[in-house]
Design brief:
- The strands form two sheets. The protein has a four-stranded parallel β-sheet, with helices on both faces. It has a two-stranded parallel ribbon with strand order 1-2.
- 30% of the residues are buried.
- Strand 3, helix 3 and strand 4 form a beta-alpha-beta unit.
- With 220 residues, the chain is of the alpha/beta class.
- It has a single domain, classed as Rossmann fold (3-Layer(aba) Sandwich).
- The protein has seven helices and six strands, in the order E-H-E-H-E-H-E-H-E-H-H-H-E.
- Helices cover 46% and strands 14% of the residues.
């Protein structure tokens, strides 16, 4: 397994948790950089000899209305949330064509519906869906299945960090829990199970699809 993160402290924490699973390589890098994307993929190939599964999960939030949204914020969100997938996939495909495999992209419940004050984030996640479908049609001839996971609100470290920036974290958490019909937010493990399914042979007929795990939010 090879994992990459721009946050070296988070990468070290993940390494300490995952090292018991099996051989592990960690790479610090920014996926919005084409050079770093190539370096991350090269590290995986160098360590394991091939690449069976690529999970493109890097992303950043951005809740800023259009009037206050800066060009720099727009560019950064699109660079991480969309170009970050491009940089890794472009580097990985020449290797994956040899043996096939699975590529999983991370969309969002906001890939399907709009939300106020999220123009940059929503644009990036909406684009993930058609990017997934286009790649799926291109790459299935090589036995590479491309699909997307679209999570709802999930209690990740990124959300925990966001909660520390608001005046009333408990009120914000309560609001997030009431957002969907299930009355709670997802755990990272619940989303990970979806990724594992799309990466596995159990999803052998899933091509260009999206697995929406949002607790019923977009069904309401």
């Amino acid at each position: 397994m090879t994992i990459a993160d721009i946050d070296e402290e988070a990468l070290a924490r993940a390494e300490s948790e995952l090292i018991q699973v099996g051989p592990l390589v960690t790479v610090a890098g920014d996926v919005s950089s084409m050079e770093d994307g190539r370096r991350i993929v090269a590290a995986a190939i160098g360590a394991h000899g091939k690449l069976d599964v690529l999970f493109c999960n890097a992303g950043i939030p951005c809740r800023v209305p259009i009037e206050q949204l800066t060009e720099e914020q727009w560019d950064r969100v699109l660079a991480v949330n969309l170009k970050g997938m491009f940089s890794l996939i472009k580097a990985a495909v020449p290797y994956m064509k040899e043996n096939g495999g699975a590529i999983i992209l991370t969309g969002s419940e906001l890939s399907f519906v709009g939300d106020a004050e999220t123009p940059a984030y929503s644009a990036s996640k909406g684009a993930v869906l058609t990017f997934t479908k286009s790649l799926a049609l291109d790459l299935i001839r090589y036995g590479i299945r491309v699909n997307a996971i679209c999570p709802g609100t999930t209690r990740t470290p990124l959300l925990e960090k966001e909660l520390t920036t608001v005046p009333d974290p408990e009120a914000m958490l309560s609001q997030l829990e009431e957002w969907g019909p299930m009355g709670r937010i997802a755990t990272p493990r619940e989303q990970a199970q979806g990724v594992l399914f799309l990466a596995s042979d159990e999803a052998s007929y899933a091509v260009g699809t999206t697995l929406l795990l949002d607790g019923g939010f977009t069904a309401a």
